[in-house]
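Example 3.2
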Amino acid sequence: MEFTLITLLNGVSYGLLLFMLSSGLTLIFSMMGVLNFAHASFYMIGAYFAAMLSAHFGFWTALVAAPLLVGVLGALVERYGLRTVHKYGHIPELLFTFGLSYVIVEVVQLIWGRASIPYPIPASLDGPLFTLYTTTFPIYRGFIMLVAVAMLISIYLLLTKTRIGLIIQAALTHPDAVEALGHNVPRVFMLVFGGGCALAGLAGVVGGNAFVTEPGMAATLGSIIFVVVVVGGMGSLAGAFVASLLIGILQTFAVALDYSLSTVLQMVGVVMNVSSPLYALFSLTISQIAPVMPYFLLVLILIFRPRGLLGTREG
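Structure, written as tokens:
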């Protein structure tokens, strides 16, 4: 029971971090039809900005300022880069964001170096939140969960209960009508792209010190968030939420389980040794294949439900 509950909580906290990262990508795609390959790079920039600001002004200032700076940077990228190639179609957009991801990594390495940088958890959030039997659950993981839930509620209220949310949704389906009413549609898209990047930056602020802040952090989570978006359904925020929790819990449990097919066979009396056929395959533990399990799930979703769990769009 202790193992199950603690692993479940760790899986939920990791899944909510994935949602914080994938929600911005989902919003950008659903509103603009742009699949931003550089999205994880903005997550990395958010972590680096937060580490720099925390060292001088404290973590709580970085929590607010770093996502705003990343959002401004994202808006500038859309205004002076993405908007220029938008008229040529989706392929140039993909190539632009793909190349941008490499440029950002190189710039980060030039400024901060190739090694990881110090970005500690703040003292006020460093410690146990509660103890379950003999295992403690950290305060900071609970903080990540709280921030993710607050972000989800804020996005929902913004898009469904405010005037700017209605304008954003209308600009997606009826841009000409929205422009005829006096709204600047390109500016709306710039704000959407900047807002999506700011959400990635927020994920970097709370994820950078929970894990490691280094130039490879974008590549580590970059492919996972695309799995989340496809599994949940392209453009579906609710789907991204469900897929994030599913993948977070699945991976966390898989990493903690040290069982293999040979172990299961041994329980029923079948003993395998090194000379047995396919011994290497049967001796692989669940924890060893945990990194590829999200991609197995992706393949299954693409085969049996190409639209994703809650998706309404085919591509």
